[in-house]
Design a protein that fits this description.
Its cofactor is Fe(2+). It contains eight helices and 13 strands. By secondary structure, it is α+β, with helices and mostly antiparallel strands. A hairpin with a 6-residue loop joins strand 3 and strand 4. The longest helix is centred in the N-terminal third of the chain and has 15 residues.
Length: 294
């Protein structure tokens, strides 16, 4: 994709008036699927990989992310997002540059190989983070498409990106596990409303701009239904950047935490200016180092 081609906005969003959803022309799978776990990715827009990490690896990564969350100096870093109500760590961004263990995990063929199969090219890390959803006070996220935000605020030309969420705790149906609408990745839902300046400072804790209308969510849910990612520690969810997804609040005693990695194709790199925002977001949220994962 040339820079000139990528400036053509095929996914207009953040408009002053409502714009109807459009059917996606880009494929969901760009490469050749060889892993049995990804057999239905093209149709569903997601896949669950059981036991991606061993119990020993899960234990090691759990200790690592607990260490990061307890670091008082790191808590002052802009890359650390604090919950509004509980004042606890919600997310730590650019974690692969903070943690050597996560950096090594990204290069693991079990991980990056999944992204290469779906995207059909070399890939780079668009975003990495660890997410913490504590018991009783963990705040969820409303229905949204990640690509809508990455297109509008980061300048990602097309939805040729995937996210991998690796569970470090049990994902029960009742502790805020991720919900997805299978097949919804084939529909792009534009959102109404102008992007405020430095929108990321609020949207990373609670997103209000860049979310679909109730009518659009209802239509997609009636068409596709809703599935939920549940499973044991060490399992993972790989999902398309444009799939509609959300998570509910966690009011149970059981915390939920995960490592979250976003892989973008090296043929889909960000353009210099976002499509529907005044300025680009910080590079710890949207990387502009497009060197492929090796």
């Amino acid at each position: 994709m040339t820079l000139a081609d990528s400036r053509i906005d095929r996914y207009r969003t953040r408009t002053l008036t409502a714009v109807p959803p459009i059917e996606r022309t880009d494929p969901t799978v760009w490469g050749r699927i060889t892993s049995p776990e990804l057999a239905n990715f093209d149709a569903d827009g997601y896949a669950i990989i059981d036991q991606l990490l061993s119990p020993e690896e899960v234990a090691d990564f759990s200790l690592e992310i607990d260490r990061l969350a307890a670091d008082p100096e790191l808590r002052l870093d802009d890359r650390v997002i604090i919950e509004k109500k509980s004042n606890r760590v919600r997310s730590i961004f650019e974690v692969h540059k903070i943690s050597r263990a996560v950096a090594d995990l990204i290069r693991d063929e079990r991980v990056v190989g999944l992204a290469r199969q779906v995207l059909g090219s070399e890939v780079y890390i668009h975003q990495s983070r660890v997410n913490y959803m504590p018991g009783f006070e963990g705040a969820g996220f409303y229905w949204h498409s990640d690509f809508e935000t990455w297109h509008a605020e980061d300048g990602m030309p097309s939805p040729r990106a995937v996210s991998l969420s690796i569970a470090l705790t049990e994902n029960y149906p009742f502790n805020g596990s991720l919900m997805v609408m299978p097949g919804s990745q084939r529909t792009f839902v534009p959102c109404q409303g102008e992007t405020p300046a430095e929108h990321y400072r609020e949207s990373l804790r609670e997103q209000e701009i860049g979310v679909p209308s109730h009518a659009d969510i209802t239509d997609l849910a009636n068409k596709h239904g809703i599935a939920q990612f549940t499973g044991a520690r060490g399992s993972a969810l790989l999902f398309d950047s444009n799939i509609m997804h959300a998570s509910a609040n966690n009011i149970t005693p059981f915390p939920r935490s995960n490592i979250f990695l976003v892989f973008n194709s090296v043929e889909n790199t960000l353009v210099p200016e976002p499509y529907a925002a005044r300025e680009i977001r910080p590079t710890y949220i949207a990387a502009r180092d497009f060197d492929p994962v090796r």
